[in-house]
Amino acid sequence: MQDRARSWWGLRRAYGALFAEVDAGGFGPAAEGQLSAEQIVAHLVANDELMIQATEALLAGSPFAYYELEEDMHRPQLDALAAEQGGLRGLTALLRGTSDRLCGLVDQLGLAAETPVATHLREGFDLIVDEPLPWSRTLDLHMRVHLPKHQSQLHVLRS
After folding, report:
1. Cα atoms in the 13 Å half-sphere on the side-chain side of 97
2. What is the span of the domain harbouring residue 46?
3. Engineering a disulfide at 90: which of 17, 34, 57, 85 sits with its beta carbon 3.0 to 4.6 angstroms away?
4. Residue 73 — pLDDT band, cuts 50, 70, 90?
């Protein structure tokens, strides 16, 4: 159980590294077909909300399926969320709230973290999951793959 608690600190560190990139600012326009800084942060907000729902369901003992949002399929929703929040600053504040809420819920999971959840996610061509995974594994993928991927995308937009 102590190892599991340490991994959740890793989730907070992954968000911290992402926020350091966002806070550095100075983002240029996205290349053709790529997400803008606002769209990346909006995507992370929306994904956090889905992960919060799944974690709350596990804590309540309810079944849940987790479908990560495909970036290309929900660009209009990302743009609408960015407009609603007043741009990158508002989105970043919202992401701070959703990430903090998610981390707080994850801290409460205990053994429920090992509950299998029907998981459907895709990270480019490198990672495709379409099977039940222990929720702890999905959280680990979020921490080790998903957040760093978007942190790198943000870094490229500053270069």
Report:
1. 10
2. 2-158
3. 85
4. low
